[in-house]
Amino acid sequence: MRASANLGSTAVSVAPGGEVEVPVTVRNAGDTVEAYQIEILGVPDEWVTVEPPTLTLYPAGSDTVVVTFRPPRSSRVDAGDRTFGVRVVPAEYPDSALVEEGVLTVEPFYEVAAQVQPPSRSAVRTARYRIDTDNLGNVTEQVSFAVAEGTDQVTFTLPAAPVAVPNGTRAETRLRVRARRLLWWGEPKQYPFTVELTPGDGRVRTLDATFVQRPVISAGLLKLLAALLALLLVLLALWFGLLRPQVETAAREAVEAENARRVAQDGPQSPSPEPVPPAASPEAPGGAPGTGDGQGTDGGVGPGGVGGPAGGPGGEQFSVAITFRTSPNGSAERSYTVPEGRTFLLTDFLVDNVQGDEGTLTVTANGVRVVTYALENFRNQDYHSVTPIRVPERARVTLTVVCRRPGQPANAPRATTCRESLYLNGVLTAPPTTPPAED
User: Fold this and answer.
1) Pairing mode, if any, of strands 396-405 and 358-365?
2) Which listed residue, 171, 267, 269, 363, has the most CB atoms within 10 A of its CB?
3) How far apart are CA 115 and CA 111, in angstroms?
4) Average pLDDT, the chain
5) Is 293 a residue whose pLDDT tops 60?
6) Which residues pair with 381 in a beta bridge?
7) Is pLDDT of 32 > 50?
8) Inter-residue contact 371 to 389 (CB < 8 Å)
9) pLDDT at 12 over 90
10) 114 with 170: CB under 8 angstroms?
11) SS3 state at 76
12) What's the pLDDT tens digit per position in 116-158?
């Protein structure tokens, strides 16, 4: 053995932010002059200093170095015991280094910071606060909360059990303040209160905050309602006092002028009983009944609307709606069938994707695909044909939907099924007749 070392104390204690010295005596056990390097093991380098860091000793000579420990006052330095070692390394014979061990005890310290966030909050009846508790010490704290000062007009809700806050962390504790009764009108009322925080060292911290209760009907709203009522009274006065007499006078003058014009044009006529209007007949112009083969419920074909002879000679304006739902990852179709003895001239249609579903939509007429849309690219889309699409009797106009994912309607939760609609518009005509062959 080339050297020996002796610690002045094998167990030392130090408070974070303080320091403690450990003398170490080193003796040259060899027969030549030797230099020794002193190294400290088991603790961070920034905590410790060695003075002097090296020694040069004659045979059988000895000297003392001082090891100083300075752990910082930080929550990252845990309280407790740490084993350290003092290693003496001979410069000529580094393989014969020796290590002497000791125990360094880091003492606990307690430091807690807390605040109520926000310090003041207003509400009609219930306000919620957050108590931020920062453990700046080096041991886990058990923190309890209580409301020490307040008012009987409000109630407080806090955790009943203590809250564990590990060192170097923040705990967020919820506090609810609720007024016992509503404040209907008047000025807002302030309710200051104090929260007591008690950590493990028993020293109580007080936190101040304020709850401001707002009235249900504020002064601004009362002023607005009064202004609206005054405006309404002014408008009523203008109507009954100025505008209504003028309207009645103008209407009476217009009727008298029209009667005078008719008398001057036709001459006086003897009164005659008012004729009874004839009953409407299906053959009367514009009286043709509407057609449509829909069911009028979600998931079928809606009722068709009709116009008069505006569709052209032998035809009538016609419209029909097809609406139905489709399950996710499924497909479905609905059709409108042209009645027997009629031809449907499809001039335009509208497809509607009100929910913003995802998938595909295909419109076919008489087995021929007219158009295919990706649902996610539109909410509604219209199609107009310069030349009408002719759909013969008993043929179908079909809407086919493949639902990949239902959408989410505005101001509503996401739908569980896809929902699409097809609105057809055109003219129903009689099919062309073939003249009989001549003999």
Assistant:
1) antiparallel
2) 363
3) 14
4) 83
5) no
6) 351
7) yes
8) no
9) yes
10) no
11) coil
12) 999 999 999 999 999 999 999 999 999 999 888 777 889 999 9
Alpha-carbon distances, residue 96 vs 132, 165, 225, 227 (angstroms): 55, 47, 96, 98
Q: Facing residues of 105 across strands?
A: 13, 81
Tell me, what DSSP letter sits at residue 377? G
For residue 162 the two structure tokens come to 């203590």
The token pair that represents 216 in the structure block = 């249900």
Euclidean distance between CA atoms 105 and 82, whole angstroms: 6
| Phi, then psi, of 194 in degrees rounded to 5 | -130, 130
Instruction: Give the span between the Cα atoms of 425 and 397, in whole angstroms.
Output: 11
Closest of 272, 268, 250, 247 to residue 259, by C-alpha: 268
- The tokens for 63 are 């000297």
Q: Are 116 and 205 in contact (CB under 8 A)?
A: no
Whether 318 has a pLDDT exceeding 90, the answer reads no
pLDDT tens for each residue of 222-234 = 678 888 888 888 8
Whose structure tokens read 């809407």? 399
Report the 10 Å Cβ neighbour count for 89: 19
Lookup: tokens for 418: 């896809």
Q: Which value, to the nearest 10 degrees, does the dihedral of the CA atoms of residues 216, 217, 219, 222 take? A: 170
Q: CA nearest 26: which of 92, 100, 85, 84?
A: 100
Whole-angstrom Cα distance, residue 316 to residue 285?
11
Q: Is residue 69 classed as helix, strand or coil in its secondary structure?
A: strand
DSSP conformation class of 300: E
Contact of 214 with 183, CB cutoff 8 Å: yes
Beta strands in 353-395 (DSSP E): 358-365, 368-374, 380-391
Amino acid identity at 322: I
DSSP 3-state of 138: coil
Distance, in Å, from the CA atom of 324 to the CA atom of 302, rounded to the nearest integer, reads 10
Structure tokens that stand for 82 in this block: 């740490």
Residue 388, preceding peptide bond in cis (omega within 30° of 0): no
Residue 369 pLDDT > 90: yes
Q: Is the pLDDT at 54 greater than 50, yes or no?
A: yes
CB 63 within 8 A of CB 38: no
What Rg do the C-alpha atoms of the chain give, in angstroms? 48
- What domains can be seen in the chain, in order of their start residue? 3-106 (2.60.40.10), 112-213 (2.60.40.10), 300-429 (2.60.120)
What is the spatial distance between Cα 357 and Cα 423, in angstroms, rounded to a whole number?
A: 18
The token duo for 17 is 């932010």
Give CA–CA dist 159/171, Å, rounded: 12
Region 354-383: mean pLDDT is 91
CB distance 196 to 206 below 8 Å? yes
Neighbours of 143 (CB within 10 A): 21
